[in-house]
Automatic annotation (TrEMBL):
Residues 88-109 are annotated as: Disordered. The lineage of its organism: Eukaryota, Metazoa, Chordata, Craniata, Vertebrata. This is Retroviral nucleocapsid Gag protein p24 C-terminal domain-containing protein. InterPro entries: Gag_p24_C, Primate_lentivir_Gag_pol-like, Retrov_capsid_C. It comes from the Eukaryota. Signal peptide: none annotated. Gene3D superfamilies: 1.10.1200.30.
Length: 109
């Protein structure tokens, strides 16, 4: 059953959630995951949507790292990859900076 939103609180559709240029990826994932949990009833659909939208709706810097990995990333692997030093370092430098993709891909191994 879908959850009823809190009174007076609007919920943005999960399809409209995009990572801001300066937003930490983990914050984006938390927002996306919360919205999907509140708006999607089917567990299999939730598991399929999160990794797909986590890549498609990420900002350009994060997409550079994520697109050089496998074409799919299971939800259980998203968080460890994001905590990898190559990703956190890129976030600390700000948007549009070079990310060492090989280092980030090491987190998947």
């Amino acid at each position: 059953m879908l959850k009823v939103p809190d009174v007076g609180k609007s919920i943005k559709a999960f399809t409209g959630i995009k990572q801001a240029k300066d937003e930490p990826y983990m914050h984006f994932i938390d927002r996306l995951e919360t919205a999907i949990d509140k708006q999607v009833e089917n567990d299999a659909a939730k598991e399929a949507l999160l990794p797909k939208l986590a890549i498609e709706d990420a900002n350009l810097d994060c997409q550079k790292v994520l697109h050089h990995g496998p074409w799919w990333i299971p939800a259980r692997l998203v968080r460890p990859v994001l905590n990898h030093p190559a990703v956190t370092e890129a976030e600390s430098r700000g948007s549009q900076q070079h990310i060492d993709v090989d280092d980030a891909n090491d987190a998947l191994e």
